[in-house]
Amino acid sequence: MSIILDHVSYIYGEDGPLAVKALDDVSLQIPDGQFVGIIGHTGSGKSTLVQHMNGLLKATGGHIYFNGEDIYDRDFPMKKLRSRVGLVFQYPEHQLFEIDVFSDVCFGPKNLGMDKKEAELKAFDALRKVGMPMELYYQSPFELSGGQKRRAAIAGVLAMAPQVLILDEPTAGLDPKGREEILRQIKELQTQTGMTILLVSHSMEDVAEYVDRIVVMNKGKVMYDGAPKEVFAHYRELEEVGLAAPQVTYILHALKDRGFDVDVNATTTGEAVDTVLHALGRIPEAFRP
Prior knowledge:
This protein is an alpha/beta fold. About 40% of the residues lie in helices and about 20% in strands.
């Protein structure tokens, strides 16, 4: 197992009068090579959860293990953890600061002790993997579009060769085309490298389309944890906590109620198209011309 959370809790302002429990006895196992979606409404604890996985926040209760080592042991190398578990924040501006994109991506490898040549090779490889156009390598990162900034921020983390990549709302604020391009690139990266990826998102369509497993957070606890089909089968319960299923779930249930023989457990657009086309071969008599 690459990451194990064992009864982890976290309280913001623990010693103050306005203490808030952001995580409440969370236990999770994240195996190597899995693509995991983490969803939940605002304030559910999903961003707090992932910030524990690379040591940005320290749990007020419980333990976290990375490759079998307790990250809270006194002699555990936290710098090594942060190079192995890379976190890309929701707002890429928080991670971009150098004079140009290439220098920015080189910063992480250099900070790990790589020499100039090795760091530059890592940066070139990372920028290629995220599909950054070469003509933008020496442009100021602050002159890039929203999608390009996200690619640059992801490349900066990839250049450090992490085993785990955590993406906190990587498509926030992007138009549909930009969102699809970023997610497709991330999926290709995961498929090609076998990297463990955690995707924090509020978009049900995004997680349904790309991830292997979904963890639903609610009030600091894990509400559901399973394959997309298993989780979205509870779409009524998700609605009760301010979430929803992908749109195709509602469309397929509506068709089922009207007598069409469709698979209501389909969660992606492709699966929905397949089951609808299959059902059209057996249209109920009431709908025949």
